[in-house]
Amino acid sequence: MGIADFEDWRKELISTGRIAQDGDPPEVREQSEGQDARYHELLEMARGVHEKQVFKALLDSMQVEDDYGVYETTIGLLFSFPSETFGPYLAEYLPEFLARDQERAGDILSLMVNNGMGGDRNIVEFKKAIGNSDNESKRVVRDFIKLQEEPGGWLENKPGWYDDAFPK
User: Which of the two residues, 33 and 79, has the higher pLDDT score?
Assistant: First the structure.
């Protein structure tokens, strides 16, 4: 299918990615009917388009806490990027994503480590890229990972998994 006009596609993806929440007023929920289907149509346009700006737009489209499973396709598309781009793109955008949505950022990192999403190459490329990123980005990601290695965190059974990404 493809993306004809990136900016229009991105705006609509961001707009339709705001999934109505249970606590939203009835008019908001009514207005959003059919939005999920359109969001999925827009995602399908991105299938096989492994550009940096598309990766970022996919991350940016995940905006609400309760997505009712709608974002599963989005996460699947992120993992469909080749490892040599997935790793660097995730490393670049993860600090910003963590500031906005730690839960979902943790889900992405957890899927990569605990479920092998994207294969071992994704982990290798991500570690290499985050290890080469600026000090502030490294600190933000390292602090988040260390927090997740504590009891109850998604890495509590795999402490030290990312240590080699942060050379001393």
Answer: 79
Reduce the DSSP state of residue 53 to 3 states and report it: helix
Reading the block at residue 35, the tokens are 């939005």
Q: What sign has the CA pseudo-torsion 17, 19, 25, 26? A: positive
- Residue-wise pLDDT tens digits, 27-50: 766 776 777 889 999 999 999 999
Helix pair 52-61, 83-100: axis angle to 10 deg: 30
- In the chain the first and final C-alpha atoms are separated, in Å, by 46
| Block residue for tokens 């993806």 | 13
Q: Could you tell me if residue 69 is left (phi over 0), alpha (psi between -120 and 50 degrees) or otherwise beta?
A: left
Q: With contact defined as beta carbons under 8 Å apart, do 106 and 113 qualify? A: no
Cβ atoms of 82 and 50 closer than 8 Å: yes
- Tokens 């490393």, residue? 91
